[in-house]
Structures are given as C-alpha cells and as structure tokens.
Amino acid sequence: xxxxxxxxxxxxxxxxxxxxxxxxxxxxxxxxxxxxxxxxxxxxxxxxxxxxxxxxxxxxxxxxxxxxxxxxxxxxxxxxxxxxxxxxxxxxxxxxxxxxxxxxxxxxxxxxxxxxxxxxxxxxxxxxxxxxxxxxxxxxxxxx
Length: 144
Fold this sequence. Notes:
This protein is of the alpha+beta class. It has one helix and three strands; from the N terminus they run βββα. The longest helix has 22 residues, at 121-142.
C-alpha cells in the first residue's frame, strides 16, 4: 500500500498527551486499479473536514521500438569477420580465414589472475569505515 498523510495541526501537552490533532490521508491499494481511500482525522480540532484529491492516473507511454544492434546484425558481404571479409579495414592477414577466438580471462586464484582485493588497503579501509560508524552510533546513543 502506498499513499500520503498530511498533518495540519498537532497540539500536545508536555507529557505527550494530544490535545488537538488534524490530518488528511490518501491511501492506494496496489492490488486494485484506481482504488483510493481518502479521509480526514480530527481530534478536538476546529479545522473543517476535507480530504486530499486523488492523483490522476495516467496510462504509461508505449514501449519504445526495438533498436537494431549493429553489432549483432549480419555485416554486408566483404565487410567484417570470416572467410568472405575483405577490403579496407581488414584486421586479419589474407591467409587467416577466421578470427582467432579471444582467450578467456584467468580464473580467480589461477596463476596470472589479478587479485580481486588488491592488497591490504581494502581491508584497512573497511575496518576504518566500520570503526567510524561504530563511534558515530555510540555518540548518537550517548546524547540526550
């Protein structure tokens, strides 16, 4: 459920007892289309009963047309990869009919692989952040 709640008036005694209160609410049930619950709450308030206007429901825009990805489209003859590619811009020697497959990246932990945590600095930074948030929580709790 979603909605809004506007408080117009709130008068309370020092001990927290409410003397007067005025608020309007608007609540939407997501399970039922265009179903709004509106109302007003008044306790010892002179404010007249009103209710919030429900928002206008606008239909979503149509989805955009699918984009043709030039990378996935078949290239015209004589352009691109494969045995029939040719002409200017070829990146392969004429005697090599196919693009060589790129080598997969090394797995984590294998020789030559990058360390996912580049040194002790990341651990130190994480501990410093944890310590700073811990100190902040302690300071917030100690304030009256």
